[in-house]
Write a structure and sequence with these properties.
single chain; 175 residues; alpha/beta; 5-stranded mixed β-sheet; 3-stranded mixed β-sheet; 10 strands; 27% strand; globular; binds glutamine
């Protein structure tokens, strides 16, 4: 989509970024690495600076202020409560076509891999997508975006564009 991407491995690399995507993976492992690499405060400072930050799956778990069964603190900046592995084991992973608020062009094919759900939305947090039973799987507030699923696993770039629009807005506001 014409943007420069940098893989962040050291806290100092956060300085030059306009935005951050925290990908999926295994949230307890990522939380452990955040702590052992001295990333926790720099990530909190990055988020507090208002720069757009998007957590997908494990990334969403790390952004949440409250998590069911995470054995150490994540970044804890977005006022949502998240339940890990809410659909069961890896074999219970699934795909679903979701209507996403703010995303034109029809439903979005969402890939859920041992995904969490968003159980509580704090004040001002907007649900962007729900499953048929009403379970929230994407939400947004201010500079934060959280998705239970993995938009990078399909060729549909609309969610990335949605995030980039947030980045453009934040960058303009900062000038
Ligand atoms: N189940 C993982 C966890 O709880 C998240 C899976 C993923 O990021 N796809 O950390």
């Amino acid at each position: 989509l014409g943007h420069e991407v940098l893989e962040v491995r050291k806290p100092a690399q956060l300085d030059g970024l306009d935005a951050l995507i925290i990908p999926g993976g295994e949230s307890t492992t990522i939380a452990r690495l955040i702590i052992s690499n001295g990333f926790q405060q720099p990530l909190r400072d990055f988020c507090a600076s208002g720069r757009p930050t998007w957590g997908t799956c494990a990334g969403a778990i790390l952004l949440a202020k409250e998590v069911d069964r995470l054995d150490r603190p994540g970044i804890e900046v977005m006022d949502i409560s998240v339940k890990r592995n809410a659909f069961g084991r890896q074999v219970d992973s699934f795909e679903a076509d979701l209507a996403i608020k703010g995303l034109p062009g029809g439903t979005f094919h969402a890939v859920f891999i041992r995904a969490p759900i968003i159980e509580r939305l704090g004040d001002g947090v907007i649900p962007l997508a729900t499953l048929e039973d009403g379970t929230v799987v994407a939400a947004e507030r201010d500079n934060y975006l959280a998705t239970s699923f993995h938009p990078e696993l399909t060729h549909d770039t609309r969610f990335h564009q949605y995030f980039l629009a947030k980045v453009a807005q934040a960058t303009t506001a900062a000038v």
